Amino acid sequence: MIRIEHISKRFKKLRALDDINAIFNSGQVVSLIGPNGSGKTTLIKSILGMIKADSGKIFVNNIQINGDPSYRSNIGYMPQIGRYPDNMKIGQLFTMMKDIRNAKDRVLDEELLKKYELEKIFEKPMRTLSGGTRQKVSAALAFLFNPDILILDEPTAGLDPLSSEILKEKIIAEKKKNKLILITSHILSDLEEFTTHVMYMQEGKLIFLKEAETLQEETGEIKISKAIARIMKGEQPGNNWIDKVFHVSAGDKII
Amino acid sequence: MLKLTRYILYDIVRSKIVIAYTLFLLTVSFSMFRMEENSGKALLSLLNIILIVLPLISLVFSTIHYYNSYEFIELMLSQPMSRTRIIIAEYAGVTVSLLAAFLIGAGIPVLIFSPTDTGITMILTGLALTMIFTSLAFAVSVKARDKARGIGSVLLVWFYFALIYDGLILLILFGFSDYPLEKVTLALSFLNPLDLGRIFIMLKMDVSALMGYTGALYKDFFGSTAGMALVTSVMLLWIIIPVWVAVRYFKKKDL
């Protein structure tokens, strides 16, 4: 469904994406993981056309993305930080999105809207919302138009445990409908229940893209979070984010 | 696109700045016409105020609006909506609201107190200047990275057209006063829409006699059909080129 060929992107001196190749198919739940600044969000934004890559091609449903925005009607996107027009009320935001997307002939998926009880606060202006409520609005919007591809950037960050659980259930339900779901998260345990593939990025490079089962077999760990940690430790030193986090060598001065 | 423009207009009206601008214009116009017995004189005073205030408001308001709707633009970009459509809808929304403000705030009083040829020319010039400075503001703000830079650059643009340009012209006129400069000044006035507007209205007011030989030349030129057509097309170019530049930048921009 999504094919990425030799994508590279530079921001001045920083190599945000370095020759990334990947294929994602329907029915997969791909967990995009890696340290901060490893290029996950840049990759997602390139798929959405919000960032124009310097070189390489991206195909969505076998059509290369170049200017024609219609492919985005198949994508539901939940941004890392949902920012919305301040003067708009929640209800108006949803009405506007439906209006703009010509949603009349589409089946709407209002499950999250109902489960998060957003309809009760339809009269609240967007600027008064807390971070968590904004996340809920973003999530409800991403699933609203029943897209075949879901791209969720840090979906559970900022959500309370209950809401986070609702979102996870929703993701599992959508996975059963044979959709492609791309998720980035730092909370690996959140991804455990539904991940089929793991894509690991570091400093703009793709380190591996593997099936979760292969990963489990290779490492002998059942938990994906542990499997990833083990993979990381097996890598050559210096290329290891988790090690760097825990490792404070004797020579290091803490100022 | 009309849908999008409608939502943008709605947002602008809610922000109340445009309403304040309308009220300001209304107050100024009514007080000018009340104070002066001679409506021609009142029109001239009004013209001078409008030529300073209108570009400033159009520039600053458009820039602030652009940066404030950044979230909205981001949201729209993740939808099946082309970039050209989004930026043109933004431009249309801002322009329409400012045009309406000018028509109500200055157009109505002028039509009541001085429904002459001169009055109508002034309204038309005001409308054209609004569109020109809004489009200049869009070109600058799409290019500038953040709000502070954007507003700074836009103020520089205003300084240039309202003050510095005239200084430069005077410098040229004094420096080369031994040569016949009538045609040169005529050509130079095309480089500043404010000057063009001013000359255009002054000639309608029959004060051109005060401007001596140059005035006679202007009258001869702007009075002819060819001259009128040229002025109109130059004004149109001043509107179209900056918008075109803004669209071009916006299409390549990473958001």
Molecular structure report:
The complex is a heterodimer of chains A (255) and B (255). Chain A has a single domain (2-87, 147-246), classed as Rossmann fold. Chain A is built from 9 helices and 10 strands. In chain A, a hairpin with a 2-residue loop joins strand 4 (55-60) and strand 5 (63-64). Chain A is of the alpha/beta class. The model of chain A is unreliable at 236-255 (pLDDT under 50). With 255 residues, chain B is an all-alpha fold. Chain B has one domain (2-252). Chain B has helices at residues 2-15, 17-35, 39-68, 70-77, 83-113, 117-143, 147-175, 182-189, 193-204, 212-223, 225-252. In chain B, helix 5 packs antiparallel against helix 6 (117-143). Chain A binds chain B through residues 11, 45, 48-52, 67-73, 75, 77, 79, 83-88, 96-97, 99-101, and chain B through 3-4, 7, 11, 14-15, 68-72, 74-83, 251-255.
How many strands in all of chain A?
10
Radius of gyration of chain B: 19 Å
Proportion of β residues of chain B? under 5%
CATH class of chain A: Alpha Beta
At the fold tier of CATH, the topology name of chain A is Rossmann fold
Compact overview of the structure:
The complex is a heterodimer of chains A (255) and B (255). With 255 residues, chain A is α/β, with parallel strands linked by helices.
Keywords:
heterodimer, A: alpha/beta, Rossmann fold, 6-stranded mixed sheet, B: 255 residues, mainly alpha, 11 helices
Question: In terms of topology, how is this protein built?
Answer:
The complex is a heterodimer of chains A (255) and B (255).
Chain A: E1 2-11, E2 14-24, E3 29-33, H1 40-47, E4 55-60, E5 63-64, E6 75-78, H2 90-100, H3 111-115, H4 131-144, E7 149-153, H5 161-176, E8 180-184, H6 188-191, E9 197-202, E10 205-211, H7 212-219, H8 224-234, H9 241-246
Parallel strand pairs in A: 3-8, 3-9, 6-7, 7-8
Antiparallel strand pairs in A: 1-2, 1-4, 4-5, 9-10
Helix pairs in contact in A: 7-8
Chain B: H1 2-15, H2 17-35, H3 39-68, H4 70-77, H5 83-113, H6 117-143, H7 147-175, H8 182-189, H9 193-204, H10 212-223, H11 225-252
